[in-house]
Structures are given as C-alpha cells and as structure tokens.
Amino acid sequence: MAAVTADQTAQAGADRPEGADEALEAVFDAAVAAEERIEPRDWMPDAYRASLVRQMAQHAHSEIIGMQPEANWITRAPSLRRKAILMAKVQDEAGHGLYLYSAAETLGTGREELLDKLHAGRQRYSSIFNYPTLTWADVGAIGWLVDGAAITNQVPLCRCSYGPYARAMVRICKEESFHQRQGYELLLALSRGTPAQHEMAQDAVNRWWWPSLMMFGPPDDASAHSAQSMTWKIKRHSNDELRQRFVDICVPQAESLGLTLPDPDLRWNEERGQHDFGAIDWQEFHEVLKGNGPCNEQRLTQRRRAHEEGAWVRDAAVAYAQKHTAKPGQAAPAHAAPAHAAPRATAGNGEATA
Ligand code: BYC
C-alpha cells in the first residue's frame, strides 16, 4: 500500500500536529477505495484492527474447534481409504487455524492471548460446530454443506483489504474446495448405496441443512458489523447475499445427489432468478451463540483439555529452539513439566468425545 507506515507515524510521535490522525485516516480510506492492500506496517484505524482481530480470531477458532466433530469418526471410518482422507482433512483444518492465528499475529495479537480468550468463552467460534456427528453420513454432510458454506463465505475474503488475511484465504479456499468434493463424493456413495445408507445420508442432510444456513450469520438487518466491514472491504458481500448464493448452489447439487433439502418452502422464483426458502429459526441460532447448543460445553471442554495436554509439546518445541540458538557453553533450558493426564469422556448427546 502506498500509504503511511506505522513506523512513520511513530516517528512523528507525540509531536503530531492537530488533524494528523484525520490525514492518516484519509490516506487509509483512499487506499481501501483504490483496492490497495493494507499491510501490517501500514497505519490503520484502531477500530479496523480490532474488527479484523475479532473476525480472524473467530475464524481461526472455528477451524480448530471444527476438527472435533469429524475427528470423532476417524477411528470408525468404514475403510482405510476413507480414514486416510478424513485424517488429511482434519489435519488441513489444523493448518488453517495455524495460517489464521499467524495472520492475526501480524496485527499485534498473540496466539496465546487469542487461545486464552477462546478457552475463557470470551471469543466466538462458528455455531455450526456445536452440533453432534451422530453417523458416518455426517462426515459427508459436513464436507458438502459446511465446507460448501465456508467456501461461499470465504472466496470473497481472498479479496479482503487486509493483505495477510486475504493471502491466507487463498490457500485455505483451495483446500476447502477438496473438502467439499470429498463430502459430496461420500454422500453420493451413500445415496446410491443400500436403502439404509440412503436413509442415513438423507437424515444427515436433514440435520445439517439449517445450521449450515446459520453459518452466514444473522440477517442483514440484525448484523452489527456488516455495514462497517463492507465499507472497509473486509467483507465483500452481506450475510444474506452469501446465504442466498449458497442455497442456489446447493439445490441442483442435492438433485444430483438424489437427496432432498428439508425445506417445504424451497422453490425457484422466476422473477428474482433465485430460490425462495423457508424461515430460519433464529431463536435456535441465538441459543447456540449463548452456549446452549447440543455440544457447546463438550467442544470447549475438549479444546481446553487438548491445550493442557499439548503443553509439553509447546514446551519441548521452545526448548528445542532455545537449544539450537544457545551459544556454546551456555546451559540448555530446564526440561518441561510433564503433561497432566486427563480422563476420556463421553458426552451426553450421543456423540463420543474423540
Ligand atoms: N457462529 O455482525 P455479524 C470452516 C456472531 S470454519 C458464531 O454479522 P460479522 C471449517 C459475530 O461474530 C469456517 N457466531 O458479524 C472448519 C458477531 O458476534 P461478535 C468459519 C456468529 O463478523 C472445520 C455477531 O454474531 N468461517 O470452514 O460481520 C471443518 C453479529 O454478527 C455467527 C468464518 O469464520 C456464527 N455462524 O459476520 C469444516 C468466516 N455468525 O463478534 C469447515 C469468517 C455471526 O460481535 N467470518 N456470529 O461477538 C465471517 O465471515 C464473519 O465473521 C461472519 C459473521 C459472516 C461469520
């Protein structure tokens, strides 16, 4: 961006003349309007930085919490091929979290701080991951619908005004596209299988359809951040626009799958050139956001435990790095404390904790 860097701003320091912030903001606004990328060392309004951290943190948290529902099926995948594919997918989600936490770090917010906020319930992750994966078909429904919704939402984020977020999204979207096809292919195999398999696929779609529509966030007239985020070109489309786009993409795909979307009001509207669809249960969405979804407690408990149990890995990585940067004759750092052993648990919602 041909704007003013943070260093230049700092140099000007306390001596900045009155109106300097307005001038900086005007340069920032002009850069955004001209479709230039804002980079970490560029000056940016505090509210822009805070909004990016909020959205990117939520996104990163969604990726790592999103590993849990599918990981629940790794040990029970029906073939070695399916198991290998699922393991690779879940590992990709961890990688997406990594890119996004790294991108958030460029805004001056460390990973530890963001994880602490997630574990304390002070930052959100996507509502979709608070639903249980009850059958193998749920792995297909997540790939087709959840990754499909994620792609619809995230492809425009590749053009986000903040450079590191936009660049992370390019790679993430390529991988999500594989994930979506994996889910579609899995559901197709089940749909064309025995009547029991077909029924299992239909049941999974029935349970995941409406929560997938909620992934796009509240309706536009109730979306607190959309207008500002779109002015800043963080978001390129409103929640309702993307939701509509997703519905229009899914209808013909459901037909090819031989599955029905569970919405009696779903029909083509010739005049609009789009599908009409039924009312979303926003009460359910708000309950899930408040922590009252079927798996909220289980997901956070498991995440906190994974973090505790992984402490020795982080300590070992730091010790290894220090050892290799230590000057000859310097003592190696003390060994990390052993991890706490935590008992395995079973959730009360029909889903075993992975
Ligand atoms: N769930 O003003 P709004 C994946 C919150 S993971 C929970 O419209 P915004 C995958 C929102 O944060 C994909 N909370 O907000 C991984 C805000 O609360 P705060 C995850 C939601 O930010 C593993 C309030 O409601 N994708 O692909 O303009 C396996 C008002 O909303 C939700 C992303 O995170 C929700 N569904 O728009 C498989 C994409 N919706 O912060 C797949 C990046 C809204 O004021 N994020 N809220 O407390 C975004 O694009 C936007 O943040 C949203 C919301 C469209 C989600």
TrEMBL record:
<dbReference type="InterPro" id="IPR012347">
    <property type="entry name" value="Ferritin-like"/>
</dbReference>
<feature type="compositionally biased region" description="Low complexity">
    <location>
        <begin position="331"/>
        <end position="347"/>
    </location>
</feature>
<feature type="region of interest" description="Disordered">
    <location>
        <begin position="1"/>
        <end position="20"/>
    </location>
</feature>
<feature type="region of interest" description="Disordered">
    <location>
        <begin position="322"/>
        <end position="354"/>
    </location>
</feature>
<dbReference type="InterPro" id="IPR011881">
    <property type="entry name" value="PaaA"/>
</dbReference>
<dbReference type="InterPro" id="IPR009078">
    <property type="entry name" value="Ferritin-like_SF"/>
</dbReference>
<feature type="compositionally biased region" description="Polar residues">
    <location>
        <begin position="1"/>
        <end position="11"/>
    </location>
</feature>
<dbReference type="Pfam" id="PF05138">
    <property type="entry name" value="PaaA_PaaC"/>
</dbReference>
<dbReference type="InterPro" id="IPR052703">
    <property type="entry name" value="Aromatic_CoA_ox/epox"/>
</dbReference>
<dbReference type="InterPro" id="IPR007814">
    <property type="entry name" value="PaaA_PaaC"/>
</dbReference>
<protein>
    <submittedName>
        <fullName>1,2-phenylacetyl-CoA epoxidase subunit PaaA</fullName>
    </submittedName>
</protein>
